[in-house]
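User: I'm curious whether this sequence folds into something compact or stays loose and floppy. Could you predict its structure so I can see for myself?
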Amino acid sequence: MIGLNIGGFGASFPGVLGTAVSKVCDLEIGRTGLLEDEARRAGFEAVTATVRSSTKAGYFPGNQPVTVKMIAQRGTGLLLGAQIVAGAGGAKRIDTAATALWHRMTVEEMISLDLAYAPPLSPLWDPVVVAARRTATLVRASG
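Assistant: Here's the prediction. I'll summarize afterward.
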C-alpha cells in the first residue's frame, strides 16, 4: 500500500477477513471471518449450523469427510464467518465462503451459488452450499 501511494496510485487498505488454511498430517483446516464466540463478543446475535459432507461424490474412490460450520447474523442472514475441517481436497472450499463474506452476501444468497461439479472433485451439492442452506433455514426459523 505504501509503495502504491508513493507511486501516485492512491491505494487504500480494504482490510482482511482472517482467511487461512492449514494442514496437519491428513487433516485440512480452513477459516474465514468471525468464529461463533467472536461474533457474539462483537455484539452479533449469531445463528450457526454445522453440516457433514464429503470432498467428492460419495461413490468416488478417495472420498474424504468434510465438516463445514457457518455463522450468520440472526434476522438478516448476513454471513459472519465459516470454518471447514476436511480430508484431502476440502479446506480450500473456505475460499468460496471468504468471497461471499467479502461481498457481504447472506446465507440465503449463497444457496444459489453456481459452483462446479465433477464427481472426482465435489459431491453434487457443494458442502459450502449445503451449509448455507442449513444456516438459512435456521435464520428463517429464528425470527
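Summary: Helices lie at 2-6, 36-41, 94-102, 107-110, 127-142. The longest strand covers residues 46-54.
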